[in-house]
Amino acid sequence: MMFMRKFSYLIILAGILIMLYPKANEWYNDWQQQKLLEEAEQAYSESAPSTSPESDLSKQYARVTQLLADESSGDQAEATEPPSPEIRLGGKITGIIQIDKINLKLPILEGATKANMKHAAAHMQETAAIGQVGNAAIAAHRSRTAGRLFNRLNEVAIGDTISVQTSGHDYRYVVYDISIVEPTDVSVLNGRGDDKILTLITCDPLVNPTHRLIIHAKMS
Length: 220
Prior knowledge:
Blueprint: H1 2-42, H2 57-70, H3 75-79, E1 93-99, E2 104-110, H4 114-119, E3 121-123, E4 134-139, E5 161-166, E6 169-181, E7 196-204, E8 211-219
Parallel strand pairs: 2-3, 4-7
Antiparallel strand pairs: 1-2, 1-5, 3-4, 5-6, 6-8, 7-8
Keywords: Hydrolase
Protein name: Class C sortase
InterPro entries: Sortase, Sortase_D_2, Sortase_dom-sf
């Protein structure tokens, strides 16, 4: 009788832990994001050097859009993988992106890798450096959790301001174009003469995405 009672308690406890795990995982990811943000605010690394786009940029862009699609399920995908004790990021923090309209403030890591994009926005190092002539592309997941990563990017409108702060610089871009394109449309990374362009990339729609939401902004 005593054994059965203990066994019942164990089953109940296991059920509670299973229900709490997704929320605990979300808290952990938010903590990691905040940790990166605080690190960026306290001391920026040196600005990333300007890099020339690779001859086969379409392959790099395809890799990034595939990463967005692979993790588009957001919280559901995260719930199936236990968080690692500590993130080992492949890139370095190059700045902070902020969009006041949607209450967004994220660290930007150099290199659009799976590890970097799990908790932050990522600059495609194959594109122009942030603040320089050309098209600087930043990608982030559109988590289903309200307010996380690029979840609310669809609320941005033409004329809105996007701020990007790097070591010693504070750049301001104004949104001039918003589009929803096929995942293979690499033309979104094209430059515009001597303009300094910022391109934000994420999935669309939020659930079962088939396309990419693209925000184009020009330095004001």
